[in-house]
Amino acid sequence: MTKRFGETVAVDRISLDIIGGELLILIGGSGSGKTTTLRMINRLIEPDEGTIAINGIDIRTIDGIVLRKNIGYVIQQIGLFPHMTIRENIGLLPTIEGWSREEIDSRVTELLTLVHLPPDQFMDRYPKELSGGQQQRVGLARALVMNPPLLLMDEPFGALDPLLRRQLQDEFIGIKEDIGKTIVFVTHDINEAFRLGDRIAIMHEGGIVQLGTPRDLILNPADKMVSDLVGSDRLFEHIASLTVSDMMVPASSIISGEMPVQSAIEVMVQSGSTVAVVRDRAASFFVAQLPTLLQRRDEVKTVLEATDPPFFLSMDASLLSALEEMKAASASFGLVMEDGEPAGLLLPDDLISRLV
Amino acid sequence: MVSDLLLTPIIQHIVLAYTALLVSIALGIPLAILALYSRNLQTFVMTSANLMQAVPTLAVVAIVVPLIGIGFWPAIVAIILRALLPIIRNTWIGLSSVDPAIIASAEGLGLSEWEIIRYVRLPNAYPAIFAGVKFAAILANSVAILTAMIGSGGLGSLVFEGLAGVNMMKMLSGALPAIGIALFLDASFSWMERRMVPRSGQSELE
Ligand SMILES: Nc1ncnc2c1ncn2[C@@H]1O[C@H](COP(=O)(O)OP(=O)(O)OP(=O)(O)O)[C@@H](O)[C@H]1O
Ligand SMILES: [Mg+2]
């Protein structure tokens, strides 16, 4: 889609697939087109070029009012109605839709509980009588009232102090699990993006520079801007989102168990590796360490006799839990398997030098 | 004609002022709403409303005569010309001075234009509308005295006859009830305002 405002190209030929049930982050500097993109999804802004489809239906064929009643939207400035109580704010759409008072009250109670505001305390207050964080929660509750399958959130925590922001993020992670909705979430806080996002789209001057999971962005940043933004050079900050496969050393060659120790040492020295994968006749895998081979080269004939049983890891295990398991098992390295074949080695020494 | 009926001057006066006021409200509020959506109408309404403000009340009363003659209805027109301005202007200001973020969030929720007026703009404009209507009511009350000159009848007739005949009692019998009505209007509008304007909307505009 493309959207121009006079001379300004607010959104420049972006193309975006949002997966049902995911939380997609739009992140970028001020004026990068995040809000404009969001408002095109619910037809508050019509794109100059391009189309948007939801579940295969072109949204231009849906009346804007109807569309918006089925898409929750939390605007950047919250925008609670000052002349209405919290009950009336959340209950406005149901009132217009002709729900009964009991239905409205029970829905409002349910939603206030969901966003951690005790209903009996907050129902009949006015927005002015609420703190910023509490208003933000009411804004979310109001957007959820018609139980829309899609939720658009524009910097919902932007105006909050860091401590409160973190608290609301934590709560939101819980709520997100409960409500199971597709969410498009705008922020310009990269930490928030990493904490909440399933995928992150990085916007710059109206375009999407890169779209991917947090790991994609950290490990394969498209350009310097992305790597600066996500901190690709400070991988340790992202250790929680890394998996074993991100940090393993690919298994270069597999040594046969029958190989004489001396030849194995030569192979390893030549390839510059201190750990090698060894396969025995029964196609079981072991690991040989260069120092052990050197120490025991006079006692043993074949390399198999000087190997250790490996500590197996799977490709997609989280790096942190893999390291914990290795520590518990006193393993000094792990053999990473994929489909029954060795894919690589996880070597803590090497890991540390790559993380910092 | 109503003025031919045997109504006491007080009732004549009240009928005159209130008919004109109600018509002014019925015209002024929709005009102000329409002005929100048409820049041309907005300019026209606000310019003519302001222009009417600049013309002396006596001239407004006088100008009606060559156009539509004298009597009850011309008097109504003269009062409306005076009372419409504060209603339109205050309503328009009230409706259009709602925080844009609040309108944006209403649009985002999926409210239609009419629903935004009904549930968001009007309630936010109540204090301003009330102030406008109250001012218009007091204006209508005083213009309704002047219109006795063009045959509207009512308390104004007593005042003018009293003045002409140097009859102080007669003049006061017209003027005092008019003052009483003005005070009553002021008090009753203040009371209604306290009753009807929601408590947090109020502090927004004051
Ligand atoms: N209604 C409008 N009229 C004119 N220009 C606009 C309008 N809305 C947005 N723009 C321009 O389009 C560009 C993108 O704006 P947008 O609001 O989408 O940015 P954003 O990424 O949401 O920024 P922020 O983080 O500051 O909210 C900006 O240059 C902005 O000035
Ligand atoms: Mg924005």
General description of the model:
The complex is a heterodimer of chains A (356) and B (206). In chain A, strands 6-7-8-3-9-10 form a six-stranded mixed sheet, sandwiched between helices. With 356 residues, chain A is of the alpha/beta class. Chain A is 38% helix and 21% strand. With 206 residues, chain B is mostly helical. Chain B is 83% helix and 0% strand. Chain B is built from nine helices and no strands. Chain B has helices at residues 9-37, 39-54, 57-68, 72-96, 100-109, 113-146, 155-164, 168-196, 199-205. The longest helix of chain B has 34 residues, at 113-146. The radius of gyration of chain B is 19 Å and the shape is elongated. The N and C termini of chain B lie far apart (44 Å). The interface between A and B is medium-sized, with 28 and 23 residues. The structure holds adenosine-5'-triphosphate and magnesium ion (MG).
In short:
The complex is a heterodimer of chains A (356) and B (206). By secondary structure, chain A is an alpha/beta fold.
Please give a handful of descriptors for the protein shown:
heterodimer; A: 356 residues; 4-stranded mixed sheet; 38% helix; B: 206 residues; mainly alpha; 83% helix; disordered N terminus; binds magnesium ion
Strand order in space, largest sheet of chain A: 6-7-8-3-9-10
The helix content of chain B, as a percent range, equals over 70%
Characterize the biggest β-sheet of chain A: 6 strands, mixed
By secondary-structure content and strand pairing, the structural class of chain B works out as mainly alpha
Task: Give the C-alpha Rg of chain B.
Answer: 19 Å
What is the molecular shape of chain A? elongated
Largest interface: A-B, 28 and 23 residues
Q: Can you count the helices of chain B?
A: 9
Counting DSSP E segments of at least 2 residues, the number of strands of chain B comes to 0
Helix content of chain A: 25-40%
Q: Note the beta-strand portion of chain A.
A: 15-25%
Rg calc of chain A: 27 Å
Overall body shape of chain B: elongated
Number of helices of chain A: 15
Element-level helix/strand string of chain B: HHHHHHHHH
- The stretches of 5 or more residues of chain B where confidence is low (pLDDT under 50) are 1-6, 201-206
Distance linking N and C termini of chain B = 44 Å
Query: What do the pLDDT scores of chain A average to?
Result: 90
The tally of beta strands of chain A, per DSSP, is 17
Distance between the termini of chain A: 40 Å
Main pleated sheet of chain B: none
